[in-house]
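Exam prep: given the inputs below (a chain plus 6-O-phosphono-alpha-D-fructofuranose), describe the expected output before reading on.
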Amino acid sequence: MALPVDGIATPVEGIDEPALARALAAIVSASRDVSRHVRSGALLELPETHGEINVQGEVVHPLDILGTETFVRAFDASNVVAGLVCEELAEPQFYSVDPASPSYLCVLDPIDGTSNADIAITIGSIYGVFPTEAGVELSGEQPFLRPGTDFVATGYVLYGSSTVLVLATPGRVQEFTLHDASGEFRLTRADMRIPDTCPYYSVNQGYEDRWDPAVQRAVQAVRQGRSLRYVGSLVSDFHRDLVRGGVFLYPADSKNPNGKIRVLYEAAVFAYIAEQAGGAASIGVGPVLELVPDSVHQRTPLFIGNAVAVEQIDHALRAGG
Ligand code: P6P
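Solution:
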């Protein structure tokens, strides 16, 4: 079944609930606005910041604020998004919705890879959509502490040499490209599958001394015969793996003992996409999608992409490298 989604030129396959189409329309609208902001680069008048530190312990970039405000405005106006966990917001937010309609909870990294923004390197937005659950009070973190298998849709937007929006729904991953002149996203890849070939691996090799020996040996094994590509924004590295084939690794290390990648709005979102596209995603001791986070900003190690390469890593880690 296909339904129209405002901002996408043709009806979207894999969407059969009008309320979900409205939630996705909010994401499309916000992404188009963020794309316009990002494209202005240094010419954009950004909100003043004074070195504030966010809940992640990272210095807040003005674009993080602008991206967050843009998506929050779209979700709040949607009347179908009942709540949001956002990388830039310490606590979940909740919005009024039409009680007669299905409603959704969204998870979001509004601007992933912000440090790349000042040097005109690709950044992105990452989103996931859960259905609200009957009988679950919409307050605090509890409604969001769910496995990625509960998602009904996830995806990301890449603000690169073009602006592409990827959408994963059960059994299907699609790519839409923003047509600047019309302001509409147009379908450019209808059925994305992670290739069987795996020419690339992505890891911050500079952290090698921080990894435990099992991880060092696992990375040493998975890099054989492959080229290193590492952009510093997960959306970029993952999109290359989805289109060209590859595997991305962000192991735990002595500085990030629980890993750096956030479970809800990064690892689980990409794991859902990877699995719909025939790939795999692991935390090293099990699949990402089965992980139920204890808190909304919880971090995890992440090994994701080509299923054979992910199994190769898991095997090496299980064997102690
Ligand atoms: P490092 C961006 O901050 C991010 O969360 C991911 O997008 C990216 O893959 C990773 O961190 C880069 O981290 O420690 O290698 O700079």
